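User: For my dataset I need records formatted as: sequence, then structure tokens, nothing else. Please produce one.
Assistant:
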Amino acid sequence: MQEVLKQNIVEKRILAPRDSRKTIGNINVPNPRMVCRNVNVYYGDKQAIRNVSIDIGCNEVLAMIGPSGCGKSTFLRCLNRMNDTIDSCRVTGEILFDGRDIYDPSVDVVPLRAQVGMVFQKPNPFPKSIYENVAWAPKIHGIVESKSDTDEIVESSLQKAGLWEEVKDRLDQPGTGLSGGQQQRLCIARAIAVSPEVILMDEPCSALDPIATAKIEDLIEELRAQYTIAIVTHSMQQASRVSQRTAFFHLGDLIEVGTTETIFTKPSHQLTEDYITGRYG
């Protein structure tokens, strides 16, 4: 009888109205690389993100989790202005990168997207050789002056992406001929070839098999020593393995943020707990 009563109490709990929701947890970090305050995103008249405020720390992996359609990928795309490519999208609020608002009209998005790189859900190598996939961005950004400079960046980037030993003898072959996991690591090498400070990853392992996924997760841990990483993932196990902080989104709201251990073992918000324990998703 007591168990039935407890269940009824849980089922009848009243959550805070959406308009009065406030993020639970400490949004601040001591050494932020990016500072986001009161970020709102609209697609036409529809609001997709509501008043999101969070810091992303230097050399940390921030995992963004939540059910499909909760806004986590939309928010991730705000961090290097990828949403600019959508005509109906409008972003308000403030996103500071190294102290400068990236939405200031004077900001050039081309160098911004070099400094805040993006790795997408589906591997998307260029229809070029493995070498040219990595060399292309340093060339167009004027980072290299000679063939030897380019060779050095290509080798260094592929080594950092854990791919060099697998492809060093076939750099002239198409990048599209690699396996899915190798293609995703090639895309990571392409992103880090221009020496970014932040790497954004939008479900980078969703299309990969478990072995390839494990390699990407190991790579994320290695890259954290040099870069700040924000990753969107539907896999809570992956979030718990690769991140130091986790942010939980629901219906466009940032519900809770905290250390990954706290979010997964002792969440404060009922919505977070229900999601973590599989009540919905």
